[in-house]
Amino acid sequence: MAMKQQQIEKNSKKANVKVPPKIDDEEAVALKKKRMIVLGQILLGIMIVVLWEFLTRLEVMDAYYWSSPSVIIETSWVAFSEGTLLQDLIYTAGATIFGFISGTFAGSLLGLSFWWSTSYSKIVEPYLVAFNAIPKLALAPVLVIMFGIGFSSKVVLAFMMTVIVTAIAAHSGVRSVDKDLEKLLFSLGAKKRHVFTKVVVPSVMPWIVSSLKINIALALAGTIVGEFISSRQGVGRMILYAGQIMNINLVWVGVVALSILSILMYLGTVWLEKWLLKGKSHH
Fold first, then answer.
1. Which CATH class for the 92-278 domain?
2. Where are the domains of the chain?
């Protein structure tokens, strides 16, 4: 009897030795992989900077044209402390973000509006495609003349670069909405506005979100082109001015500043994507 009891206890102990849940293992592996990727990205960036500095010091790369990380840092400090680098960055970032937000919002509304009427959608769609084919940057001189050389023209250019891309993405999302589900809800007595808010908008949201990363790059490009054409402030104006006076080091300061700005904006859109899709992922 005692041996039987011991065997039962032994078996129960074995049963209590549980392997950690598989889902926890997967999350830990995913987190570890994410950390490794971030570390790899940082190390790659450091390697590029070190190699750049090394090659310019060995005169393999011409320092006059390519500058060097150490000189760029020195020039950046001078531009930051004695010049207007911070104000230029704020100006460029502000115009880009305003254009990005307004263009994405207006494009989303335009694309979603196609759901309400098939006839309206078919009438407008060819013009949407045609306008998307027009190189918007070619209109930059006209827009600068129309809206002036100030902040407004840069925002308008960023807006123009993003609104059609978002509208097309939203329109594609509208066409992919489950028609059978719509018919079912209508047959159950749902009103059109209810179907729109409960089915169409959530279904289209991933399509809109997928365009955010493209939009932020396009908005920044529009802002910089506007600053190249005519502007009192901005990183684009600083690069243009530096090129005119043959200050290559200052040109590279502008290029690096824009690269850092674009990375920060990209990370911002990644966070925005996660936030917008958070509710959908829970479902």
1. mainly alpha
2. 92-278
| Residue closest to 177 by CA, chosen among 156, 152, 148, 206 | 206
Altogether, the residues listed in the chain come to a count of 283
Take residue 121 and report the two structure tokens written for it: 């959608």
CA distance 56 to 261: 25
Tokens of 25: 């293992």
Q: Tell me which residue has tokens 């309206």.
A: 120
27 phi, psi to nearest 5 deg: -65, -40
Query: Tens of pLDDT along 269-282?
Result: 888 888 877 755 54
pLDDT tens for each residue of 104-156: 999 999 988 888 888 888 888 888 888 888 887 888 888 888 888 888 989 99
**Spatial CB neighbours of 159, under 8 Å, sequence gap ≥ 6:** 99, 102, 103, 106, 219, 222
CA 132 to each of CA 113, 160, 169, 172, 176: distance values in angstroms, whole numbers, following the listed order: 18, 10, 12, 14, 21
pTM, entire model:
0.80
